[in-house]
Write a structure and sequence with these properties.
Elements: E1 12-13, H1 20-27, H2 31-37, E2 39-43, H3 45-53, E3 60-64, H4 73-77, E4 83-87, H5 89-93, E5 104-109, E6 125-130, H6 135-147, E7 152-155, H7 165-171, E8 180-182, H8 186-189, E9 197-200, E10 217-222, H9 230-236, E11 241-244, H10 257-273
Parallel strand pairs: 1-4, 3-4, 6-7, 6-10, 7-8, 9-10, 9-11
Antiparallel strand pairs: 2-5, 3-5
Helix pairs in contact: 6-7, 6-10
Length: 274
């Protein structure tokens, strides 16, 4: 994150809930608005810092008036952003999805949409999510995928929007680091050639260390209750599918899907480094 050498001009005060930038931030809580405008809301200093470090220029930045510091790093780093505002805490709370409003909130442009023609296909390592509906899980998985060298993440029907505020917050800037393919179902994957699928299932699969995860493949994960459901039968109709199950202590609750993704991707890295 580069910081301009010159002092940052102070943000403009904003005092009306009817201000267009506040109205836009509220509207972006809705998926259809995010999709139509190609924008997302980033809440908190850490997320905005991560976006800036990846070269993302915010469309607008809202600082909480009561906690604004002119010499703060984020004030300096956003000096070139055209729309910067000082917002009273009560107004910022009205556009935030958090229980307590953050010190700073930004409106960012979404990454350009990715398609099969934009990414390696077959991939060295791809990730397919079927029906992972919780935004926090999706964001955590995106963050893990970026950290552990996934070529891309495909989100099937029923999976949360990765640009949901909670998903973006959990991804911590990784939303901009790994290609995201939206609305990709199993029926879309079977139009490709040469794919190998490793499907995470709650029981009946091989332990991950007994599956060749060093070879190129797509790791498929589903919702914690429904699993991969119908997607698995579609994929098995065309591709070799190997089922993998993470062994657990008897009587333990099933692993959270984001925890399972982290464990399996870490095993991929271990096998490949070996």
């Amino acid at each position: 994150m580069s910081v301009p050498a010159r002092p940052a001009p102070p943000p403009r005060p904003l005092s009306s809930a009817r201000n267009p930038v506040l109205k836009e931030a509220r509207a972006l809580q809705a998926k259809k608005v995010r999709a139509s405008r190609g924008l997302l809301v980033a809440e908190g200093e850490d997320l905005l810092t991560a976006a800036l470090e990846r070269g993302i220029t915010p469309k607008a930045v809202l600082f909480e008036e009561e906690r604004f510091e002119e010499d703060h790093l984020l004030s300096q780093a956003t000096v070139d952003v055209r729309e910067r505002y000082l917002v009273p805490r009560t107004l910022l709370a009205g556009v935030s999805s958090l229980a307590a409003p953050p010190r700073v909130l930004a409106i960012l442009h979404q990454p350009p949409p990715a398609s099969f023609s934009d990414v390696p296909m077959p991939p060295s390592l791809g990730l397919f999510l079927a029906g992972v509906a919780d935004p926090g899980n999706v964001g955590t998985i995106v963050r893990t995928a970026a950290a552990l060298a996934c070529d891309w993440v495909a989100l099937g029907p029923g999976s949360s929007d990765p640009y949901h505020p909670r998903a973006a917050r959990a991804a911590m800037g990784s939303t901009f680091a790994v290609p995201l393919l939206l609305g990709v179902g199993a029926d879309d994957l079977v139009t490709r050639e040469g794919l190998r699928i490793v499907a995470a299932v709650p029981d009946g699969g091989l332990p991950p260390w007994d599956v060749d995860l060093a070879a190129p493949h797509i790791l498929a994960l589903g919702a914690e209750r429904a699993g991969l459901a119908d997607s698995l039968s579609v994929l098995e109709g065309k591709f070799p599918v190997e089922r993998v199950t993470i062994p657990q202590t008897e009587g333990a609750e099933s692993l959270n899907v984001s925890a399972a993704a982290a464990a399996l991707l870490a095993e991929v890295v271990r096998q490949r480094s070996a």
